Amino acid sequence: MPRSKNKTDRKKLFRRVRRPTLKHITILPSLVTILNGICGFAAIAFASKGTMTSPGGFSHFTMSGYMIILAMIADLLDGRLARMNLTTSSFGGQLDSLCDIISFGVAPAFLMLRVLEHKLSGLGLSPTTEMFLERFIWAAAAGYLSCAAIRLARFNVENEEDESAHMSFVGLPTPAAEGVIVSLVILHQDNLPSLNIIIYALPFCALGSAVLMVSRIQYPHVLNQYLRGKKPFSYLIRVLLLAAFIYWTNIQAAMVLTACGFAASGFIKWLYFKTVSKKRKIVAEAQPALTTDTNTDHIVEEDELG
Q1: What is the reported pLDDT for 292?
Q2: What pLDDT does residue 14 have?
Q3: Mean per-residue pLDDT of the chain
Q4: How far apart are CA 246 and CA 249, in angstroms?
Q5: Is residue 276 one of the residues assigned to a domain?
Q6: CA–CA dist 225, 260 (Å, integer)
Q7: How far out from the chain centre does Cα 253 lie?
């Protein structure tokens, strides 16, 4: 009996555990999501070629930036298509995050790294200074990539498939974070190649975006909050003013202002409510105490007069 019992226990131990198998997926949203990842891969390939000019007349750094923007457009469409067809699934969310880490994590970090390495190579710095700057750039790129991965993993854990839950984001979204880096690179390459301060600001912008991604600062979902459904008439005026601003200014400069303004808006609101609302709370708590003391003084004076 003991031997047969041991055999039974071993069979139970080594028995294959049946896992749930994926039988059906939605084709169109999945294809758009994969397009997101392919655009990110193309961005890495363009960035690896350096400053050579592409057949379209743009530098490869610029083409890399535009590929990341195409990936961002694909990322906006895949979730929208899935929700319109009521076909959101865990598979789609996982696939989206895997493609996002390529397009909005690896690609912007690698693009920033290649642009800054190319810039440093032409400065003629001492070996010690150049090594220090290269390590700092690598640290900024690695920090950005790490925070992007953490941001996506946290989003997968906390995300809800209900459309009503997608009105705001906790932390700066990864497409908005890459928009800060990519817009600065495109502006420098296309319009202001002699203005090196834009390139030198890239690692600091990457580190700032990384911190905002893993923060708990609330950012609005622009499409759901301002463009979806019925909105006040003032929203239309804002959209028209934004379109006029983009038409009046250079489109690359408008991209920089939009991306950096959106990233900074959440932090400014958080800082405002932390400081101003805290002061108001302190004043509100102090007022009842002052009123009580004043009423007590009046009572004491009346007793003395009596």
Answers
A1: 53
A2: 53
A3: 80
A4: 5
A5: no
A6: 19
A7: 20
The residue among 171, 155, 168, 44 whose CA lies nearest residue 96 is 155
Confidence of residue 36 (pLDDT cuts 50, 70, 90): very high
Radius of gyration of the chain (CA): 27
**Whole-number Å distance between alpha carbons of 290 and 164:** 44
Q: How far apart are CA 236 and CA 251, in angstroms?
A: 21
Q: How far is CA 65 from CA 71, 104, 154, 234, 277, in A?
A: 10, 11, 26, 33, 40
Q: Yes or no: say if 2 and 10 are a contact pair by the CB < 8 Å rule.
A: no
**Which residue segment(s) compose the domain that 91 sits in?**
28-266
Question: At residue 304, does pLDDT exceed 70?
Answer: no
Give the CATH number, domain containing residue 136. Answer: 1.20.120.1760
The answer to whether 252 and 183 are in contact (CB under 8 A) is yes
Judged on CB neighbours under 10 Å (0-12, 13-18, 19+), 201 is: middle
DSSP-assigned beta bridge partners for residue 218: 170
How many whole angstroms separate alpha carbon 62 and alpha carbon 66? 6
